[in-house]
Every structure is written in C-alpha cells, then in structure tokens.
Amino acid sequence: MIDFKKYIAEKISENIESAQNINKYIEVPPNDDMGDYAFPCFQLAKVLKKAPQIIANELKENLKTDNIITKIDVQGGYLNFYINKEILAEEVIKEIYNNEKYGFSKKGEGKNIIIDYSHPNIAKPFHIGHLRSTVIGQALYNIYEYQGYNVKGLNYLGDYGTQFGKMIEGYKRWGSEYDIEEKPIEKLTEIYVRINNLCKEDEKVLDECRNNFKKLEDGDEYCVELWKKFRDLSLKEFQKIYDILGGRFDSWEGEAFIAPKAREVIEILEKNGALVKSEGAKIVDLESKGINTPCIIEKSNGSTTYASRDLAAILYRARTYDFDKALYITSYEQNLHFKQVFEVAKLLGLDEKYTNGLEHVSFGMILLPTGKMSTREGNTIKLEELLEESIQRAETIIETKNPDLENKKEVAKKVGIGAIIFNDLSNNRVKDEIFNWESILNFQGETGPYIQYTYVRTNSILEKIEQLPDVSKIDFSLMTDKYSQDIIKLIYNFENILEQVTDKNEPSILSRYLIDLSKAYSTFYNENKIIVDDENIKNSRVYLTLAVNKVLKIGANLLGIQMPDKM
RNA sequence: GCAUCUAUAGCUCAGUAGGAUAGAGCGCUCCCCUCCUAAGGGAGAGGUCACAGGUUCGAUUCCUGUUAGGUGCACCA
To answer: What is the nearest nucleotide to A454, using C1' and CA?
Structure first.
C-alpha cells in the first residue's frame, strides 16, 4: 500500500533544504475538513526566520497537487493535505482482498523473542491475579509472531521452595483422606492450608517440612515422585485454563529446573569480584547504579534466592534461545526485583545483545474493593469461577435475545470468555483494576461482546451474498463518503497499530482500535442499507463489510479472543 | 524515610512520543426496529486535564516542586 505520510514528507523535503525528519512532524488533523494529513510549519519558523503562515503559503505555491494529493491548503501555520479518497479506498480494499494475512509483516524476521508469562504456582489455584499475565503475554505472543518474530512462550512455573516440603509432609500425613485425582488443586490446597496451620502450632512439623524440601533437592525417590505427581496433576488442570484463554507455551521449565543452575551465577559473580559478604549473605551492591537496595544472591544458609535463580534463567535462556528480546510479564510489585536482576545480569559476562534485550513488562493489580487479595485470607476470586459465571451470563442473554441459535453453549463460551479477556486488555497495563462483577461481566458498550456483535453482523451480510463480485468491478468512488472513509482509514492503519503494540508492549492499543473500528462500522451500518438493488452500491458496501469482517477477526484473534459466527 | 508508579466528565478510562475546538463507554434525559441481528445507532447534559512554577511560537503531554493515593525496600517467591 502507498505510504501517504512518507509520500507527503518526500514532497515537502524536495522544497526545503534545511528540513529533516519531515515524516516525524506530519500529523493527522483533528477534523475531517482540515484534510487527511497536516504539516505544522511552526518549528521551521525559527530556522527560516519567517512567520509560519508565510512558510506554509510558500510551500503551498511550490507543491503541486497530483493524482494522490488532490488539494493542499493553508490554515493558520498548518499546511493541510487532502489525499485522493478513491485511491485510498482502492489501495486498502485490494490489499485486504489479496492478502489473507492482512497486517502481517516481516519486521521481526530473524529475531528471537522470549516471553515469560503466566507462571502459576504448582498445587495452588489459578486465581485472577494470574489472569492478566496470561492474557497480556499471550496477546503479545500472537502479535509479535504476526510481525515475523520467532517467539517462544515460557511458563516459569512456581514449582520450588519449602512450600513443597510442606505439601509432601501434608500428603504423607493425610493423603489417603483426600481424593486428589478428582479435584487436584482444590484438594491439594486444602492439604496445604491444613499443614500450614499445623506448622504454626508445632515447630517440629515445620522442621520436617524443611527437611522434606532438602530431600527433594537431593533427589530422594519418594519426595521427587510426589513432587512430580503434584506437578503433573496441576499442569493438567492449568492446561484446561490455557485451552480456554489461549496461553501458548513452548517451555514449562520452572524454578526447580533452573535452581541447580544458580551455582554458576554465584561462581561467575564471585570470580568477577561482584559479590560482597553482608550479614552472612552474599550480595551485589547496586548503590552506584542508583539502586539502594542490594541484590541478595546467596542466603546466609547457602541456598539460592529468587534473584539468583532469575539470573540463572537469563544465562540458560541466552544460551538456549539466543534471544534478542526477553519479556517478563508480571505485576509492578516486582519492579525493584527486575531492576536489580537486570543490573546484575550485566555482570555475568554476557553479550550486550542479551542484557539490552531484557525488559520487564509490568502491569497493575486486580484489587478488591477492600484491598489486596490474599490466598491466606481466602478472599481471592478463582479464575475458574469467574469464567464460569461469565459463560453463564452470556448464555442467559442468548436465551432471551436469540433463543433459536445453534450451538448456544459454544457461543456463550466465546462471548463470556471474550468479555473477560477484552476487559483485561482494554486498559493501559499500569492501571490497577478494582474487581467488580458487574463491570467485568458487562456486555454492553466498549466490551468484547460489542466487537463480536459487530463481527457477527458483518457475517450475516456476507452470508446473504451468494458470490462476491470481482474486485476489479468495484467502483471505488462510492467509498468516498464520510462513513466509508472513516472505516477505510482505520483499516489502512491496522499494521501501524500492531507496530505500536509491540513497540510499547501494550495490547490495549489494539483493543481500543477494534472498538474504534466496530464503532465506525456500526455507524455506517445504521446509516446505510448494505444489500440494495443498485449493484454498484451494493458491491462497494459489501466489500467494505468484508474488510471490516476480516480485520475484526484477525485483530480479536491476536488478542486471544475467539469470534462466534452468530450470536 | 528512600525508591517508583499514578492523578483527565459523577464512575471507568482514551488522548496518536509538544500542536488546531480535550474524546469514548457506563450512568442520567430524550429519539430511532413494516428495513441485512437494538449485545446496535443518534441527540443532550456533564471539564480549573490534582496544584504551583519553569522550558517555547505553542504544554493535558516535557522539567522541577507540592499534595493525594498505589506499590516496593535483605535472606518469601
């Protein structure tokens, strides 16, 4: 497709010697009657020592309109460009018709990117705190991949620590009382809570637990076997959730896998002279880097830390995946931790390529009206419960609005889950979210179901058309009205939107875009009847509908949202 | 206390890496289904962009400070 911005920028550059980066300054005017693109002349005023209006007028004199730019005018200090609407429409429609993977790019070809996300804890419920990491990570996975990157999803499972010594102890004592095959996580959690209580009462039991963990690390047969069992059962249950939410993972190597590799990190740092003894522990002092909390690498009892394990993971992943970028999707509670880890990583002797590629993609928390959720206080909201409730509500709505619909269950699932995923991806990552059943399960306004609904409407139109006429038969002059152009312009921007998403690791940019596109189409739809007698008008409107249909589906799928054909 | 993030309509949020008259959704008041799905569309009301300075042709956007709130700060992950 023609890059109109670049085209205009080049035209302007030809006329001004001193101009640089014209492309950067070109913007889209706030109003349609101000043209399609604008060049503000203010910053040139200083260089050329002339008033902006004069510069704009002079430029206008020298620039010729052509087939692509139909009009140039001056408003204030702005030079406004009007592009040929017909050509714009033709470019967009032909591209989308010929390209099954509209918006796909090869920008990331040859680049490896790893995304560390979701990382639930074994034997603990998958609650809504894990939802955001999963949903954001998965959307980024899809979108990077759509830009030609070689993406790997890593699920760095929480499968390590004294907690497993406790689990083993609990199971040893009361395992026979629970049917953990049927509802593994629920039962394991019950055992976990019970053993925790016992530990509080009896210090000896806690020692037993610590001992179990030690045995686990040393490869004790019974402990390892149990641990594997917990892990397998949990994974099976997690997979159910990933099947619904769309998490894609190429590795399930958790903390237990990485932990033994932390020794090397300690050795390297020791050799570099980066380690300092402090209060019995080994630390890296980061004061000189502007971080006044030291990074603990080895505990005073000689065991590894969260940080040293993360550093070991960096080493391992650099070797295994040769990554250009490594994204960590966690809540902002871990900001300091990653700041420390990334700083210490520079001391490991790795190529700069790796240390420069480390990036913490942090996000805000889901809070209850009463404050933070806590597993210990039992006030978490289980993800499964939320998903089920959402599907249930979608089903109720279908029952009243479209009782004859086929596959009601399947559609309800897509709509219910779509609502939840979209809700989590629709706001800027950094924002906290106060959990509220009513707002998260709202299906009206700027929501997932709204996008799905718009898509479904395009579908029923396309279904009614037996055969699409050839693109060459389309009269693009029929797409120059405001409502059509609003849609065309949005679709033209799609690839650019995807680039913005990966530049900022911010999927909400795509979510907002899909809302805008749905809105533009809904307005168009309400203003125009699409299937009309006049063949030419019908065809142009059908093609516009097809374009929206495709982009909505591609976009939603990239976010991890499934589109129902009918709803 | 130190670090860090946030502050835009009653509520929830956008605001294109400094630009023209600050936009949506929810809620509220109206209007639109003999017509391709009304989970939709349209109109209206609603703003000191937290506050005070600074940078410049121009600041909701950048810088400094203040206020309010979230989060983190040595052997939990």
So the answer is: B40
Whether A180 is in a domain gets the answer yes
Cβ contacts of residue A85 below 8 Å, gap of 6+?
A: A479, A480, A485, A488
Domain count, chain A: 2
Positions of strand B less than 7 angstroms from a protein CB = 2-6, 12-17, 19-21, 23-27, 35-42, 57-58, 70-77
One-letter amino acid for residue A6 of the chain: K
A331 residue type, one letter: S
The verdict on A78 and A116 lying in the same domain is no
Q: Which of A347, A367, A387 is the last residue of a domain?
A: A367
Whole-number Å distance between alpha carbons of A547 and A468:
13
Q: Tell me the CATH number at A8.
A: 3.30.1360.70
Are A331 and A363 within 8 A, CB to CB?
A: yes
Write the pLDDT tens digit of every residue in A510-543: 999 999 999 999 999 999 999 999 999 999 999 9
- Tell me what the pLDDT averaged over chain A comes to: 93
Residue A503 resides in a domain: no
pLDDT higher than 90, residue A439? no
ipTM of the complex: 0.96
Residue A14 lies in a domain: yes
Strand partners, A462: none
Domain of residue A355 covers 112-271+304-367
Average pLDDT over residues A40-61: 89
A380 CA to B71 C1' in angstroms comes to 19
Whether A416 is covered by a domain: the verdict is no
The distance (Å) linking the CA of A207 with the C1' of B52 is 58
- Which nucleotide has the least CA–C1' distance to A538? B36
CA of A523 to C1' of B32 (A): 13
Report CA A365 to chain centroid distance, whole Å: 15
Cβ pair A227, A269 in contact under 8 A = no
* A511-CA/B33-C1' distance, Å: 29
Gap from A526 CA to B42 C1', in Å? Answer: 10
> Tens digits of per-residue pLDDT, A466-496?
888 899 999 999 999 999 999 999 999 999 9
> At which of A352, A367, A382 does a domain end?
A367
Same domain, A332 and A259: yes
